[in-house]
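Second attempt. The first submission of Type I-C CRISPR-associated protein Cas5c had a stray character pasted in from the spreadsheet, which I only caught after the job came back as garbage. Lesson logged: always re-copy from the clean sequence file. Corrected sequence (207 aa) follows.
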Amino acid sequence: MKLKFTASRAIFTRPELKVEAVSYPIPPPSAIAGMLSSIMWKPEMRYRINQIIMINPIQYSSVMRNMVKSKAFRQNRIDIERDRTQRSHRYLKDLCFIADFDILADDPIKYIAQLNRRVDKGQSFSGVYAGTRECTADFSHPTGEEKPHYTYDGTMDFGLVLHHLNYIPNPKGKVTWKEKGNIVKGDVEPVMFHAIAEQGVIQCSIS
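This time the job returned cleanly.
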């Protein structure tokens, strides 16, 4: 199944850059799965992203934002005037891509029909965001006339991009999450993949 997403701006923050927020040049598969889950989600299903088809050329825009240097805790207050600092955020501009994906479930045909109905009506469980809440995204069925921009001719190497996160149970871990109604403690392991676009099409499968 394929869906088209568009956003006037997007930011899929690279985890290795902690001070300045810089977006990946492409949406990571885990982010796309999150956008799809905002449209429709059931506990017994999950999304597998097969391909990302980039339509619009990669463009960036930079914004300077006022932020604070300190972390807020209950026991201390932040002096905004003294702690304020300016940091740059690098966004993707005029993002448009098509996600080719499968629904993994016992009866995927049923969920595909439900998803199609929701897309036709423009319905979503929550806001669909291109990275963060300030970057809203629109979704629709592809018309079949969309083609990657000519700048994607040939091969483009985007390097390592986050594919998904593995949640590993560990009683001494620093992260908690909910699994089958229970709170689980453990660690999070990022899984990366080498993103290479051939004529604007990125294969997301990993070994």
